[in-house]
TrEMBL record:
It catalyses: 7-aminomethyl-7-carbaguanine + 2 NADP(+) = 7-cyano-7-carbaguanine + 2 NADPH + 3 H(+). It comes from Maricaulis salignorans. HAMAP family: QueF_type1. One of its GO terms (molecular function) is preQ1 synthase activity. Belongs to the GTP cyclohydrolase I family. QueF type 1 subfamily. Substrate binds at V73, E74, S75, H92, E93. One of its GO terms (biological process) is tRNA queuosine(34) biosynthetic process. It comes from the Bacteria. Keywords: Cytoplasm, NADP, Oxidoreductase, Queuosine biosynthesis. This is NADPH-dependent 7-cyano-7-deazaguanine reductase. The keyword NADP applies. Catalyzes the NADPH-dependent reduction of 7-cyano-7-deazaguanine (preQ0) to 7-aminomethyl-7-deazaguanine (preQ1).
Length: 153
């Protein structure tokens, strides 16, 4: 039996191609199933995008934390949205903040933060952080647990 609460999810359970561009990727959401404050974390250890100047690949470990209000993101649509960056040329700062701002727009969370831990390019790792404000009181917010890049030791 199909649950009607999820009838508007067009990507879940369907063969869905990777979107061509982050702006055209659909982020789907479902009602928050919990009435108590809690945090959701997505760890994306193999995020890729392209350098907008050289076209060379860039790699990052992303950690997305948020405290939902009325909506949570459907994880397949998030995976496809993040995958749409694979052929998208943008600087590290633009990719990281674009992801955060799109999630804020679609979900209107109580709080959101993203850590973009980018691997070195030209010998310099770039870490990019974005948050909508202070973490809410009374919600367990663990550290992201990703160390700054140290090379081989």
């Amino acid at each position: 039996m199909t649950d009607n609460r999820y009838q508007d999810l067009g990507q879940l359970g369907a063969t869905t191609p990777l979107p061509d561009h982050p702006d055209t990727a659909a982020l789907e959401r479902v009602a928050n199933p919990c009435d108590a404050p809690y945090m959701i974390r997505f760890a994306v250890p193999e995020f890729t995008s392209l350098c907008p100047v050289t076209g060379a690949p860039d790699f990052a470990h992303l950690v997305i934390d948020y405290v939902p209000r009325d909506w949570i993101v459907e994880s397949k649509s998030l995976k496809l949205f993040l995958g749409s960056f694979r052929n998208h040329g943008a600087f590290h700062e633009a990719c990281t903040t674009q992801i955060a701002q799109r999630l804020v727009k679609e979900l209107d969370p109580v709080w959101l933060r993203i850590g973009g831990y980018w691997y070195p390019r030209g010998g310099i790792p770039i870490d990019v952080f974005f948050a909508t404000g202070e973490a809410p009181a009374g919600v367990w917010i663990p550290e992201q647990g990703v160390a700054s890049y140290r090379g081989r030791g």
